[in-house]
Amino acid sequence: MSSDENDISRTVPRRGLVRETPRVGAVIVVGSGDALDGLRAPRIFAMEQLALDIGRRPHPTPAPTPPETRASTLAIPDSTVSSLHARIQRASTGADLFILQDLGSTNGTYVDGKRSQGPVPLRDGAVLFLGSQVLVFRIVTTAEYEAMQQEAASPFTKLPTCSPSLAVTCAKLGRLAALLRDKRIPFEMCPSSNVQT
Predict the structure, then answer these.
(1) How far is it, in rounded angstroms, from Cα 86 to Cα 64?
(2) What is the overall mean pLDDT for the chain?
(3) pTM of the predicted model over 0.85
(4) What domain count does the chain have?
(5) Domain for residue 83, yes or no?
(6) CATH no. for residue 43?
(7) Which of 6, 8, 35, 134 could form a disulfide with 30 if both were Cys (CB 3.0 to 4.6 A apart)?
(8) For residues 21 and 27, what is the distance between their CA atoms, to the nearest angstrom?
(9) Per mean pLDDT, which range of 84-93, 105-114, 176-185 is the poorest?
């Protein structure tokens, strides 16, 4: 092989640092099956600490507790949810590894239809049942979380989406629609403006 062939077939190392976008755990409280209000206005809660205690009346972690052991709290006012029902904790060994633990609840905790028996790793999109309440666990970037919050507050369509990537797309479409409405960009510049209706 000539030296020119070696130069062509050699892999060039990537320059600069690869930046991972930090991701957080988020819980979407959809609600119970007896009311559709949760679908119209889902509650989206980001894990600000390494742990999230979920229950009807979860107790906040006392302030003198070291930051690495503090837990955020998510209250779900439903009699089928125990006072301190479950905990989601970010694993120290993996950046995107989250573990759910039932805390001795009366009605149990189910992950993707299976009763939780001990610590259960959560996947992105896992469906959680706490009593009669339905929750969805997501692993999202800050931008995705903000787009989901915006979509929940002001949906692009009749119902808000709880999909992180679709919420980001809806936010972009909303900004484009505002630019068109305010005539800051001409309609003819839009790729679909030449479509016959």
Answers:
(1) 23
(2) 81
(3) no
(4) 1
(5) yes
(6) 2.60.200.20
(7) 134
(8) 19
(9) 176-185
Long-range CB contacts for residues 94-101, cutoff 8 Å, separation at least 24 = 95/20, 95/23, 96/23, 96/124, 96/139, 97/121, 98/25, 98/47, 98/122, 98/137, 98/139, 100/126, 100/128, 100/137
Q: How many CB atoms lie within 10 A of CB 87?
A: 19
Give the number of residues written for the chain. Answer: 197
- Read off the pLDDT band of 126 (50, 70, 90): very high
Cβ–Cβ under 8 Å, residues 153 and 125: no
**pLDDT for res 123:** 95
pLDDT digits (tens, 9 = 90+) for 21-71: 788 899 999 888 676 665 667 789 998 888 999 999 887 655 555 555 567
Cβ contacts of 110 within 8 Å, gap of 6 or more = 116, 128, 129
pLDDT of residue 195: 47
Residue 180 lies in a domain: no
Q: How far apart are CA 107 and CA 131, in angstroms?
A: 5
Range of the structural domain that residue 103 is part of = 23-141
Q: For residues 138 and 23, what is the distance between their CA atoms, to the nearest angstrom? A: 10
Enclosing H/E stretch for 168: helix 164-181
Does 12 fall in a domain? no
Query: What's the token pair of residue 36?
Result: 């559709």
